[in-house]
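S.,

Sequence below, as promised.
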Amino acid sequence: MVVSRRRVVQVLGGVTMASLTGAGKAQFWFAPSLTYPAIKVGNVNNLKNNEPVYFNYPDARSQGILVKLGRPAIGGVGRERDIVAFSAACTHMGCGVQYKGGRFLCPCHYSMFDPAKAAAVYQGLASTGLPQIQLGIAQNGDIFARAVNGLIWGRARNI
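The prediction came back faster than expected:
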């Protein structure tokens, strides 16, 4: 079967547009074949703006940080799309990040991550953002961690 150059360009254009518009987004962010546990990490009624809640996910060896930002965020849940969670392991060398002053800070080498922009790194030695923890909210306001988008530092597999 001979494929024309025009057909190759059409297919590549379609794939590019799908990735830019978010179609198939889940396949690009995490391996859909992994089965993550659903764990309750909080309740929307107990959250206060910019007060972090620490929890372990997807297992006892990995700390996560849940925070209500008070402004919309990429991947945010809740009425205002402002509740997000991320792995607390810095992507530079695995130090535990902290939430202070509206950002995630690594005390070891001073990397900073923007929680409203999917924890993208904007300063320091880290080269990638923090893995985002997918959240879901039940009707009673309970917040559940459901999966991890990205690889937690120091691991070959998240689970």
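The chain has one domain: 25-149.

Coffee later?
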